[in-house]
Hints:
42% helix, alpha/beta, binds magnesium ion, 238 residues, binds 3-methylbut-3-enyl trihydrogen diphosphate, six-stranded parallel β-sheet, Undecaprenyl pyrophosphate synthetase, 7 helices, 6 strands
Amino acid sequence: MVKRDEIKNLPRHIGFIMDGNGRWAKKRGLPRLAGHRAGAENLRRILRACGEWGIKYVTIYAFSTENWGRPEEEVKGLFSLMEQFIDRELPELMKNGVQVRHIGRMDGVPERLQEKIRYLLESTKDNDKLILCIALNYGGRAEIVDAVRRIIAEGYRPEEVDEELISRYLYTAGIPDPDLIIRTAGEMRISNFLLWQSAYAEYYSTPTFWPDFNEQELYKALLDYSRRERRFGLVKEG
Length: 238
Ligand code: IPE
Ligand code: IPE
Ligand code: MG
């Protein structure tokens, strides 16, 4: 049961490493793509739940720079599911006041999906209830490389480079750092997700596969987070 008053402090920004679609499908004797389809369905459910909790920023890891190494059929299938997701979810995103942002490299992404993404970003840009960052063709290292390149290209002097400047040149400029990173399917690694931004994020890992990660599971993660003591390198008070 979800008990709202048990949770004293909510994260402002949650990052989701939506993992385990393939294993979810395998367990059922289905092709991997069926797992990705179920994962996309679940995304709708979790976004809605995050909105209901009043979470302001959500980042979802949809496709990493390393995921290009998967079989071509799976990569194509994932992109086609993303197109369908955009077509289907846009009205609901508008209704719920969701503003969508993209983080990652656009090059390499099929032109048709790029067009749909641009349309999605443009259509939702004035919404402000929840900011949804889609990490697609995203890699934390690539992001830092891209930032450094732009900083050099713009002629900054070495003494002008500090943490604040680098943050401003990341894809996530203007978005607060994640407070909580949730990874499904049991893995204990970050797989190149928000490397810079998650320096002080709280990690939460659950064995549940992404398609099964429901509202109750989200509640468990939020409850766990609310009981943590974030020290940021300082000493405990009192
Ligand atoms: C996560 O599920 C989705 C993407 C990486 C796109 P996986 O496809 O990685 O599922 P597992 O890890 O093989 O179970
Ligand atoms: C991370 O999952 C990437 C996404 C969820 C998009 P992976 O399944 O690609 O990560 P590894 O291979 O287990 O590290
Ligand atoms: Mg995986």
